């Protein structure tokens, strides 16, 4: 199995987001960048597939210079090699999806794994868009995967509201990974050392010849509205519970 | 000229999720022309009554084979074929697991821009629509416009009010085009979670427990409070990771993002990743024995106290209140 894993670098989830004064982006100074948490499940699943069935894992990341760090970490987890699509500009989702699809096409593959969504833009679009672009079937929000190599088919379980469903499909295909799929491993020291020698191929976004125009325009970013001053009750429990229920019933009128 | 709003959603045995009514209300309120709906599967036409109640002008039902079993590629291809016939200015999907799977695929097939998980839509002067959607799990809001002729949006559940506006919809007979190589990925089985469990993203009240609950068996205290409130039960991440509750309970930046009217955070410290998932709550009520816990900074109401004393009292007090009303 040749598995491609799409990896996005995002701000650590502990980051306090500060908006630039022009409202067109966030202040990046001091941000710690990490692999998108859902992409770690995708990498781990690829590693488990290789352990079982053999093959190769290629991680693909599009972004500015700093994404090298995310790539190194994915290689240290055990991926075989990487392709970095270098772009310093902020690209539209469709441009990213089409660039990633082009790289995938050039590489060849049996499976493409992405995260369920990137925890920065929270779009949850790239996986299905790459699938559409490549005319491949997809399953999103996958929490369990079985591969039938003989018949070249997949059986995936995906999460819905209050239910799960089983999806059956042939591969090549695109899957998006959800928490629960597996428990990602930490890189070991020897693997971190080995990762330094693994191949990282670099291509520029421009060289891919993507002529897709931007489809979404950011007008502005704003902070969420401030929460009101809290009412904190500290007396004895019987007292405070009575007061709380009164407040919820009479002031907030929510119970 | 394309005009009108096309609302695409799923149904189950003639029932739709509440978010569909919310989306229909939004579709009408845009006032961009007629509202046309499309839904799929056996019993799809049974939704006609509720579609009329919420003001759909026209309805399309694809209840025949192969639309009785969901297929992302099959449905997306058929939708891409029908869009030019409906010729809408705006396409809306619910931002449910179903809508999130299907809408980006449709968007790419028809070359349209899509903004996912929108909180609100607004028509700007040139009759174009702008949307507000949360990013960084709600740590910031992005106002966006779609640049393509067809503008697509998926709508987050539980934000917009559903308001009836009865009409008698016309059923459109638009036969689907089914390409021979689609319907590759097909749903073959559906497993319901425990019955009676409310979906967190659609719940009006949520009671949620963290590590302060100390042990899995103590979640029965939360279940009891949830029962008197008619609430759903959620949790912080470590508690789900420990297996005290199912993964589906996990709320936060890497779990479910919720927007209930009231969110009770019980024994939850209020880490930034947890707060990101609950910032859309109208009221946050915190119960924690540490007065310095960050959850109190975002709470509307808080009790500083031992949850093991507070929870049973609270459950009783609310039960008494409900009995008197
Ligand atoms: C990449 C990443 C993603 C993450 N995503 C999420 C996420 O999506 N959601 C999430 O929740 N977390 C997430 N986390 C974890 C997060 O950082 C916190 O560790 C977690 O939210 C803490 O959970 P908690 O509040 O239940 O536990 P704690 O922080 O241990 O808090 C327990 C609280 O209970 C109180 N308490 C103890 N005993 C009692 C008592 N008897 N009565 C009343 N109060 C009591 C304590 O005062 C304390 O405030 C993430 C972390 C990382 C690194
Ligand atoms: N710039 C990128 N480079 C590589 N993979 C990406 C990139 N953007 C998104 N992805 C992949 O697509 C998934 C969903 O992202 P999104 O649609 O932005 O929420 C992520 O979890 C990644 O796996």
Search tags:
heterodimer; A: 255 residues; alpha/beta; Rossmann fold; 9-stranded mixed sheet; two-stranded antiparallel sheet; 6 helices; 29% helix; globular; B: 325 residues; 2 domains; 7-stranded parallel sheet; 5-stranded parallel sheet; binds flavin-adenine dinucleotide; binds adenosine monophosphate
Tally the structural domains of chain A. 2
Low-confidence stretches of chain A: none
Largest interface, with Cβ-Cβ < 8 Å? Answer: A-B, 82 and 93 residues
Mean pLDDT of chain B: 96
Separation of the first and last Cα atoms of chain A: 55 Å
Overall CATH class of the largest domain in chain B: Alpha Beta
**What share of the residues of chain A does DSSP label as strand, in percent?**
25-35%
- CATH class of the largest domain in chain A, anyone? Alpha Beta
Number of helices in the DSSP assignment of chain B? 9
Count of individual helical segments of chain A: 6
Tell me the CATH architecture of the largest domain in chain B: 3-Layer(aba) Sandwich
Detail the poorly predicted runs of chain B.
none
Strand content of chain B: 25-35%
3D architecture notes:
The complex is a heterodimer of chains A (255) and B (325). Chain A has two domains: 2-208, 3-Layer(aba) Sandwich (Rossmann fold); 225-255, no CATH class. Helices cover 29% and strands 30% of the residues of chain A. Chain A contains six helices and 13 strands. Chain A has helices at residues 37-53, 67-77, 93-107, 126-133, 189-195, 237-251, and strands spanning 2-6, 9-11, 33-35, 56-63, 81-86, 111-115, 138-148, 153-160, 163-170, 173-177, 200-204, 216-222, 231-233. In chain A, strand 4 (56-63), helix 2 (67-77) and strand 5 form a beta-alpha-beta unit. Chain B is an alpha/beta fold and 325 residues long. Chain B is built from nine helices and 16 strands. Chain B has helices at 18-29, 48-53, 72-86, 97-110, 219-229, 237-241, 272-278, 295-298, 307-324; strands at 5-8, 35-40, 58-62, 90-94, 113-118, 120-123, 129-135, 140-146, 151-155, 170-171, 186-192, 205-209, 232-235, 262-266, 283-288, 301-304. In chain B, strand 15, helix 8 and strand 16 form a beta-alpha-beta unit. At the A-B interface, helix 4, strand 7, strand 8, strand 9 and strand 12 of A face helix 3, helix 4, strand 5, strand 7 and strand 8 of B. Bound molecules: flavin-adenine dinucleotide and adenosine monophosphate (AMP). Residues 6-8, 36, 38-39, 60-63, 96, 100, 114-115, 117-118, 121, 123-127 of chain A line the site of adenosine monophosphate (AMP).
């Amino acid at each position: 199995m040749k598995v491609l894993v799409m990896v996005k670098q995002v701000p650590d989830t502990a980051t306090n987001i500060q908006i630039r004064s022009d409202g067109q982006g966030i202040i990046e100074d001091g941000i710690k960048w990490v692999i998108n948490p859902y992409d770690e499940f995708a990498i781990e699943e690829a590693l488990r597939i290789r352990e079982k069935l053999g093959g190769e894992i290629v991680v693909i990341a599009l972004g500015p210079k700093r994404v090298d760090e995310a790539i190194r970490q994915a290689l240290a987890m055990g991926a075989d090699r990487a392709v970095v699509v270098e772009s310093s500009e902020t690209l539209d989702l469709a441009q990213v999806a089409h660039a990633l699809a082009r790289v995938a096409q050039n590489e060849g593959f049996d499976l493409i794994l992405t995260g369920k969504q990137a925890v920065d833009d929270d779009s949850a679009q790239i996986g299905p868009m790459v699938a559409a672009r490549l005319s491949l079937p997809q399953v999103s929000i996958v929490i369990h995967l079985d591969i039938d190599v003989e018949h070249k088919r997949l059986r995936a379980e995906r999460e819905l509201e209050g239910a799960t469903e089983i999806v059956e499909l042939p591969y090549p295909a695109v899957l998006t990974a959800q928490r629960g799929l597996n428990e990602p491993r930490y890189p070991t020291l020897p693997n971190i050392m080995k990762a330094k020698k693994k191949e990282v191929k670099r291509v520029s976004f421009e060289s891919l010849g993507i002529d897709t125009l931007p489809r979404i325009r950011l007008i502005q970013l704003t902070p969420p509205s401030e929460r009101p001053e809290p009412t904190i009750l500290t007396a004895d429990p019987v007292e405070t519970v009575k007061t709380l229920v009164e407040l919820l019933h009479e002031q907030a009128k929510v119970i | 000229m394309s005009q009108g709003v096309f609302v695409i959603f799923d149904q189950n045995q003639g029932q739709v999720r509440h978010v569909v009514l919310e989306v229909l209300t939004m579709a009408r309120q845009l006032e961009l022309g007629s509202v046309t709906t499309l839904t799929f599967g056996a019993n799809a036409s049974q939704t006609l009554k509720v579609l009329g109640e919420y003001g759909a002008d026209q309805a399309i039902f694809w209840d025949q084979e192969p639309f009785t079993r969901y297929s992302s590629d099959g449905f997306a291809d058929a939708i891409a074929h029908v869009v030019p016939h409906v010729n809408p200015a705006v396409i809306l999907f619910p931002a449910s697991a179903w809508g999130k799977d299907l809408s980006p695929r449709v968007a790419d097939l028809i070359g349209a821009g899509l903004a996912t998980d929108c909180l609100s839509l607004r028509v700007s002067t040139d009759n174009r629509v702008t949307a507000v959607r949360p990013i960084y799990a709600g740590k910031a809001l992005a106002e966006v416009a779609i640049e393509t002729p067809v503008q697509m949006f998926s709508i987050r559940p539980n934000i917009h009010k559903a308001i009836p506006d009865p009409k008698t919809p016309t059923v459109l007979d638009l036969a689907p085009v089914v390409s021979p190589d689609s319907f590759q990925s097909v749903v073959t089985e559906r497993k319901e979670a425990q019955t009676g469990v409310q979906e967190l993203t659609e719940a009006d009240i949520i009671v949620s427990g963290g590590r302060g609950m100390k042990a899995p068996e103590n979640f029965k205290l939360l279940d009891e409070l949830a029962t008197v409130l008619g609430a759903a039960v959620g949790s912080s991440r470590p508690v789900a990771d420990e297996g005290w509750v199912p993964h589906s309970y996990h709320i936060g930046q890497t779990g479910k993002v919720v927007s209930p009217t009231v969110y009770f955070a019980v024994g939850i410290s209020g880490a930034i990743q947890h707060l990101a998932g609950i910032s859309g709550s109208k009221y946050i009520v915190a119960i924690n024995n540490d007065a310095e816990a960050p959850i109190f900074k975002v709470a509307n109401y808080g009790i500083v106290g031992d949850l093991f004393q507070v929870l049973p009292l609270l459950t009783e007090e609310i039960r008494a209140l409900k009995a008197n009303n």
